[in-house]
Amino acid sequence: MNLAQAMSLVVQPVQDLKRRSQRRADGETTMPFTLVALREDRVLCVVSAPRMAAVLDCADTLAIGLAPQMLVAAGQVTLPERPESPDVPAQAEGQGIAYTSMSREREAALAVQRFEVVGDREVRFGPPAKGAPDDKTVMDHLAAAMAKTPLDPARVARKDTSTAETADLAAGPGPAPVQTTEPPDFLPVEQGRLAIDAGTATTAHRKVAHVGGTVLVLAGSPERATQLLAYGLPQKLLLS
Question: What is the pLDDT of residues 180-221, one digit of tens each?
Fold first, then answer.
């Protein structure tokens, strides 16, 4: 998946999120910081919260648990005036959405999409354009996360055995194998994938729920949605 393909999947839902934030009853119009995990050329999981730190704390969880092709962070930014340089065009002062992407090969990119608010609620967006980061905090977080080894869906034990990768990442981002005298009874790979996906999303939700954050898993099909629920994914996290 290249950057153009990723942006074509991510931009529209992020724009919708910004439009919804403009219509909030409490008067807060800043779009929540958002982290999107892409896998198999589609959006798999979206984590959003008012606090950037809480969302970035989920980067390791998503990178290790979901084995994404790419992570894309999106946040509302104030754009300072900046002259043209060899790398980026001139920038006028304004507001925009900054998209920071990081592939599994740790290829990074930054794009900025300007917007303007017309009246109280209408938001008009310009096209995304290449940007240059003033602060590499987000990029560094995503690079560190994508450098970690994902959990292996072939090493997920059934519930009555204990030697396996763990689908619950609450205790930490990495696998926690436990040695036993009995040979492990592993789930088939596809079932292991479902178990890890469900556990990863549940863990991410625990990390952001206390700050008003949300996690959505896009199942991709009704059948997969049913399977994820069977492996413990809470119904409220599922967008089928």
Answer: 556 678 999 999 999 999 999 999 999 999 999 999 999 999
Note whether 132 and 110 are within 8 A (CB). Answer: yes
**What CA–CA distance (Å, rounded) separates 121 from 116?**
10
Dihedral of the alpha carbons of 209, 211, 213, 215, in degrees to the nearest 10: -30
Among candidates 58, 61, 2, which has minimal Cα distance to 35? 58
E strand or H helix at 149: none
pLDDT digit string, tens, across residues 105-164: 999 999 999 999 998 779 999 999 888 777 899 999 999 999 999 999 999 988 764 444
Residue 20 CA neighbour count, 13 Å, CB half:
8
* DSSP per-residue string spanning 10-36: HHHHHHHHHHHHHT-TTS--PPPEEEE
For the entire predicted model, the pTM comes to 0.87
Q: 3-state DSSP helix/strand/coil percent for the chain, to nearest 5?
A: 35, 25, 40
Residue 67: closest CA among 99, 44, 49, 100: 44
- 31 contacts 21 by C-beta, under 8 angstroms: yes
